[in-house]
Amino acid sequence: MARDLKFLPPNHRERIFVPKAPSNNILPSKRRNLVKNAPAPRKVTNPFCLLYTNADSLLNKKQELRMAIRDRQPDLIAITEAMPKRCEGRIEHQELGVHGYDLIWNEETETRHRGICIYVKEGLLVTVEQDLTNFNFEESIWIKIQLEGREDLLLGVIYRSPAQSDLEGNNIELLRLLQEVGKDKAQYKAIVGDFNLPNIKWNQRCGMVAGDKPLEEQFLVTIDDISMEQVIDRPTRYREHQNPSLLDLLLVNNPEIVHSIELRAPLGKSDHVVIEAKLDLSLHISDQPPPKRYNYGKGKYQLIRQEMASIEWDEDLRGLDVDAQWEKIKNTVLKSVERHVPYKKDNRGNKPLWLSPRAEVAIRKRNSAWTKYLHSHRTEDLNKYKVLRNRATQTLRQARKNFEEMVASEFKSNPKSFWRYVRG
Questions:
Q1: 64 CB contacts (<8 Å, ≥6 apart)?
Q2: pLDDT at residue 23 is higher than 70
Q3: Which of 65, 98, 136, 273 is a plausible cystine mate for 263, CB 3.0–4.6 Å?
Q4: Which residues pair with 104 in a beta bridge?
Q5: Bridge partners, 190 (sequence order)
Q6: Three-state DSSP class for 269?
Q7: Is residue 127 scored above 70 in pLDDT?
C-alpha cells in the first residue's frame, strides 16, 4: 500500500503527493571510474548549498536552525531524527515550518521511525520520488531537483536506526534500495544521512572494515556497484566518553561536483555536527513570482464600496445559474480589491524577533569554540565548547522568555506586536 508524503509550503496550504559479500574485509582501493555515466560538472558562480544534520529532535532546536539558515542561506536543509524519541501526540506541520522554505516530511507514514524533514528554498523545482520513498526500507525520503540544462539531481535523505525492530531485514532493504538508486537515470545523484555504520574506516574515499562485519562489507560493495563515492572524511558525531565517529555520510556519483564541505557546530545539544556541503550544480529557479500579500490596513474601502454600489447587479446576474453568479460576484470584488488595496513587502526573515544582541554573541562564541576544537581535538577545548554551548542555550531560552513576557504584558496596548510574533 502506498504511503503518502506531505509537501508543505511555508504558508501551510497542504499539497499531498501520493506518494553477495566479499571474502575479504577491504574494499579494493582501485575503484572503477565513478564518473563514467555522469556529465562533467561545470564551475558555477553560486554552488548548490546543502545543510544536513541529525538533530535528535528538531522541535527544541528550530530557532537555532533559523539562525543557521540566516547565516548560511542554504538552498536545501535535510534533517534526520527530527522527532523526539518519545513522541506523545501528533506533531503538526506548523510546528516545523520555516519561512522561505517548502517542507517535505514523512509525518505519520508506516516507515517513519524518528522522522525526516527536508526544507527546500522557495522557487526550486522539486518532485518527490514516491517509488524510492515508499520502499520497504525504514526510513528515507527521495526527491529530484531540476537543474539548468534539463539535468536532474536525485537526492536521498536516509536514517538507518540501529534500534529498528527488524534490524536484519531493514539492512537488507537498505542494500536493495541503493541498488534501485543505481538504476535511476538522473545525471547527478547524492545521498546524505545517518547510516550508523561506525565500523567502516573511511580513508581517501575508500572504506575498510575491521573484523567480520557482513553489513558493512556489503554496503561498501553496493555503493561501489552503483558507482557512488563517500566524500566525508572526518568524524561527524562527538559524544562524551566515546571516540568520535563518522556516522553521517554524503555519497555522490560524481565527486568532482563537490565544491567544499564544512563541519559546523551542532544544533543545541545534539552530538552530530551540521554538515555544510556546496556542490557545483546550477539550480533551475521557477519563473513563478512568490505569492503577494495585501496590506489590508491601507485599503481604500470607500472606493470599493462606491464601485460595488455603481454596478447594476440585477442586470449583470440575470440569466446566470447560482455557480455563474457566484463567479461573477467573486471576480468583480477581487478586481476591485486589486485596484484599491496595496501589496505589502514580506519582511519576515529567519531571525527570531526575540533574538537579543547578547544571545547572538553567545552563539558566535559557541561556534568559535567548536571550530577551535575541530582543529585541536584537545579535551580542554572540548570542555570549553561544552561550557559555551550550555551558556548559549541558556541565554537563548532567557532571551525568548523575556521577549514573550514583554509581548504578553503589552498585549492590550500593542496587539500588533503579539500577532507579529505569532505569525513568526
A1: 267, 268, 363, 396
A2: no
A3: 273
A4: 7, 118
A5: 155, 252
A6: coil
A7: yes
Q: Model confidence over 180-227: pLDDT tens digits?
A: 999 999 999 999 999 999 888 887 445 666 556 788 889 999 999 999
Q: Which has the higher per-residue pLDDT, 108 or 280?
A: 280
362 to 39, 269, 390: CA distances (angstroms): 44, 15, 10
DSSP 401: H
For the chain, state the CA radius of gyration.
Answer: 25
| C-alpha cell of residue 281 | 550544480
Q: Are 151 and 132 a contacting pair, CB within 8 Å?
A: no
**Contact present, 178 and 226 (Cβ < 8 Å):** yes
Euclidean distance between CA atoms 181 and 191, whole angstroms: 10
294 closest CA partner among 348, 349, 341: 341
pTM reported for the whole predicted model:
0.75
Determine the Cα–Cα distance for residues 187 and 338; give it in Å rounded to an integer.
44
Alpha carbon distance 279, 346 (integer Å): 29
Mean pLDDT of the chain: 83
User: Is the distance from CB of 78 to CB of 192 less than 8 angstroms?
Assistant: yes
Contact 169, 205 (CB under 8 A): no
CB distance 9 to 25 below 8 Å: no
- Quick one: which of 226, 254, 183 has its CA closest to 39? 254
* Amino acid present at 303: L
Helix (H, G, I), strand (E, B) or coil at 138: coil
Closest of 206, 168, 209, 199 to residue 24, by C-alpha: 209
CB 275 within 8 A of CB 193: no
* Cβ(147)–Cβ(283) below 8 Å: yes
Choice between 295 and 248, residue whose per-residue pLDDT is larger: 248
CA distances from 261 to 6, 7, 118, 185 (A): 29, 28, 19, 26
CA dihedral 229, 234, 239, 241 (to 10 degrees): 120
C-beta separation of 366 from 269 below 8 A? no
> Which contacts (CB < 8 Å, 24+ apart) does range 6-9 have?
6/93, 6/103, 6/104, 6/105, 6/107, 7/102, 7/103, 7/104, 7/126, 7/128, 8/93, 8/97, 8/102, 8/103, 8/104, 8/105, 9/102, 9/103, 9/122
> What is the percentage of the chain residues whose pLDDT exceeds 90?
51
Element (DSSP H or E) covering residue 130:
helix 130-133
User: Which one-letter DSSP state was computed for residue 57?
Assistant: -
